[in-house]
Design brief:
The chain is 30% helix and 23% strand. Helix 4 crosses helix 5. The chain contains 6 helices and 7 strands. It has one domain: Maf protein (Alpha-Beta Complex). The strands form 2 sheets. Strands 3-4-5-6-7 form a 5-stranded antiparallel beta sheet. A hairpin with a 6-residue loop joins strand 4 and strand 5. The mean pLDDT is 97. The protein is α+β, with helices and mostly antiparallel strands. The structure holds 2'-deoxyinosine 5'-triphosphate and magnesium ion. The site of 2'-deoxyinosine 5'-triphosphate has 22 residues, from strand 3. Homodimer.
Amino acid sequence: MKEIVIATQNKGKIAEFKQLFEGLEVRSLLDYPTIPDIVEDGMTFAENAAKKAETLATYLNRMVIADDSGLQVDALDGRPGVYSARYAGPSKNDIDNMEKVLRELKDIPSEDRTARFICLIAVASPNQETKIYEGTCEGIISNEARGTNGFGYDPIFYVPDLEKTMAQLTAEEKNKRSHRANALKQLLAHKEEWSS
Ligand SMILES: O=c1nc[nH]c2c1ncn2[C@H]1C[C@H](O)[C@@H](COP(=O)(O)OP(=O)(O)OP(=O)(O)O)O1
Ligand SMILES: [Mg+2]
């Protein structure tokens, strides 16, 4: 079976990529525990995605993809943005991160709680220019957490046309419309750019 390597330690992302890349063997940083942590010090999702993909591609001497993603809330001037994973502190706690967002939006009415998930996927290969693909997914920040599927900010991300939070969707439903699925569609639509 053909395999794809994804430079991520996030179990939620890994589970989604396993479904999205149905038929491929998906490997991740969890399969290479001796590789040192990759510091995400970029100013943009694209920089962080490229750094994660390039670091592991150099280390393994093969093609690697990486996903840098996060939540952008309009009423918070785009925060948590690139700091989504560590929004409430270095422990990267999903519950604390969601509580912080809900607290900051406490007095904001629902029509002003617009937000989007963003996903940048980088494809890096040794001695090749790194390619970047983007996907987004629009929603509203709910007043409270609802649902237990997915990961990260999914329980507070309400999808208006489905009248559910992302965490109330099945994995199949999320994978049809998520920022990650949309970025992957772009990647697959531009295969000629990176598959040489
Ligand atoms: O579909 C999603 N549903 C809910 N939340 C999401 C999603 N996609 C990203 N997110 C949030 C989680 C985390 O707070 C941040 C990603 O941060 P990000 O640095 O890309 O990932 P990470 O540090 O968890 O793992 P890694 O860097 O090893 O891939 O955005
Ligand atoms: Mg990260």
